[in-house]
Write a structure and sequence with these properties.
The complex is a heterodimer of chains A (about 400) and B (about 170). Chain A has about 400 residues and is of the alpha+beta class. Chain A contains 17 helices and 8 strands. With about 170 residues, chain B is α/β, with parallel strands linked by helices. Helix content of chain B is about 25%, strand content about 25%. The chains are: A alpha+beta (about 400), B alpha/beta (about 170).
Chain lengths: ~400, ~170
Amino acid sequence: MAELTADRTKEVMTVNIGPHHPATHGVLRLVVDLEGEVVREVTPVIGYVHTGIEKSCEDKSYWKVIPFIERMDYVSYFFQMEAYCGAVEKLIGLEIPPRAKYLRTIFLELNRIHSHLVWLGTTALDLGAISMLWYCFRERDRILDLFEMATGQRMHTRYFQVGGVIEDIPLGFEKKLAEFVAEMPVRVGQYEALLDNNEVFLQRTKGVGIVPRERLLELGVTGPLLRAAGDPWDLRKAVDHLVYPEMDFKIPVGTVGDNYDRYRVRVAEMIESTRIVEQALAALPDGPHISADRKYVLPPRSELSTSMESLIHHFKLVTEGFRVEPGEIYNAIEGPRGELGCYVLADGSSKPARVHFRDPSFVNLQAFRDMSVDSYVGDMICSLGMLDPILGGVDR
Amino acid sequence: MPDAPGLELIRGEIERDRPGSVLATSFDRGQAALLVDPEQVLDVLSWLRDEPGQRYNFLSSLHAADYLPAEPRFGVHYELLNRDRVERIRVKAMLADPGAEQLPEIDSCVSLFPTAEAQEREAFDFFGIVFRDHPNLTRILMPDDYVGWPQRRDFPLGGEPVTFTYNERRYG
């Protein structure tokens, strides 16, 4: 009888959310201890989409790894390619031509906008702003159209190669891209107009999920989450990478580090990325789009019927691939979610001995407990959306 | 990134404060690495983190690698970062395979870098490297009841049966 008269509002109940739940942004499972509506403990359980990509890469020659690693974080595939190709280029000491650097920068920043659009649409959807999804996915579709035009694929484009990019951009691409660049800031303004005056959105994000900057750094959190807490850390500025040093762009930072700041930082980043694309497009130099080093780069198709040398190189590259001297490298770039690191271990053969990705979602997810303990369930869902984990990247 | 002489200076200073902890240095393709004694890895990490002139206080990545057939075969890598100077240094601890059913062991650095919690679990999950004093050393990406260490080089690739346990139980 004592149990029946006990104060039930203090009872702690363990609830399982996911792995298949629309608000978990992928197959993430959350084991949540609830006291009424208040989260007292939360444990993310991951691994539901682990497919052993890192292991599979050990059995692929270097250039065949690229389509695999693209499928880890399936929203930021250009970044995966850049981290990996950059690592291999550092291993073999291959310099990529200027035009390839500009093209890579353009596609990386388009991919960043695309990734933030997916994030904004789905997160706003979690908070009840359903129409945001359609507006964001409309612009996302235009980016995918651009990807399709240049690479032949909308997602998982396999566009970056060791040494440059696989093809030059087609005729008419620059015009289409310029149109997009001109229109995007207007669109971003529309998103802001929809959300920034929305009382429900403001109340659900402001002051929610604050984690101090020092704690974020302890937890290894990078990217927009760290910048929202007021730390202007961005690898695009910090290291000399591609053509970012020549670009004029700002690093948006927040002040409080709540979910509203995280939203503001990402929206501002979309504008900055648009500016980078605009500048890179204006300064796009002529020249080859891929290195001419035949040891590592496929010869152009047209040479195959006239040059025996090219045919031999082509045959060697396609059958065996290129060999890489033993060594190891850790190459980190600024992905849309933070530091995306790629570790490649070469053992002298034509296949990498190990490919490991330091995925920002995987590391950032550790901050989720700090963000959501002692808040309401609804705020926890909001914090999870603002954390922006991509489970394909978390589980690899 | 400290350059090659800078790396030797760091090594000298560690040698002064923590004798015998650094076994070798390597500077390859622009990346500096310290090969350390696995028993003293926490000493080196805390020195690099707290020493006023160093301040490598951000652990950007912790991962393991299997160097088979080299011996000792397992490497645990700590990619440290100094954000003010934008310098990275890799601390490498090599662990021998104790053979049979035993697992290689190393101290957990979660007390120094809380970010290592999930990454050490990942290294345990895939390579069977035990991190002593880790708060919750369980499998993280593979199923809890999985047997084997799938990212070791001698673990076969492919052939992983796709199990539909419910259907198997029901339909045989």
